[in-house]
Write a structure and sequence with these properties.
By secondary structure, the chain is mainly β. It has one domain. The protein is built from one helix and eleven strands; from the N terminus they run αβββββββββββ. The strands form two sheets. It has a nine-stranded antiparallel beta sheet with strand order 5-4-3-2-11-10-8-7-6, covered by helices on one side. It has a two-stranded antiparallel sheet with strand order 1-9. The protein is elongated, with a radius of gyration of 17 Å.
């Protein structure tokens, strides 16, 4: 796990010769008031990786099938499950990662996006048995840089 974290942080500081241009962005490095996020659509193993470093020192890392990616008109919704309590709730984090095509003239793109923390209330009988609001979310602003790197 620590090796994955070191690799993700090392990717965020790659120099220009390591960039794979032109092409789609495959590395997103984001900073917010309370969290830093590094998301890679691929890695040396071929699997996607995401790391959340909260400023209270909490680190959450996921890779491969533990990351759900859904393409939408907003961009890719990159979601990880934080915690599940059966018959009560599931907590998730979702990053909006817009697609970016990079070129030699534009080797990176900087943009603003959102990170959502969502609690989905659950019931063993399905969502129809949950009274009231099923999902509740709050979000925070992130400033991100999209890059293309070799793995």
């Amino acid at each position: 796990m620590k090796t994955m974290l070191v690799l993700l942080f090392a990717l965020g500081s790659l120099s220009t010769p390591a960039l794979a241009l032109p092409g789609p962005a495959n590395l997103y490095v984001c900073k917010g008031d309370d969290v830093d996020v590094i998301y890679s659509t691929s890695s040396f193993t071929g699997a996607p990786m995401i790391n959340f470093q909260f400023h209270d020192t909490t680190v959450i890392s996921r890779s491969g099938h533990d990351i759900s990616v859904q393409d939408t008109t907003l961009g890719s919704l990159v979601t990880v499950v934080l915690r599940t309590v059966p018959d009560l709730f599931t907590d998730t984090l979702t990053l909006i990662a817009p697609a970016a095509n990079l070129t030699n003239r534009r080797p990176q793109e900087t943009f603003i996006t959102r990170l959502f923390k969502t609690r989905t209330r659950t019931s063993s009988g399905g969502p129809a048995l949950v009274e009231g609001l099923i999902q509740g979310s709050h979000s925070q602003r992130l400033v991100c840089t999209a890059q293309a790197v070799h793995f």
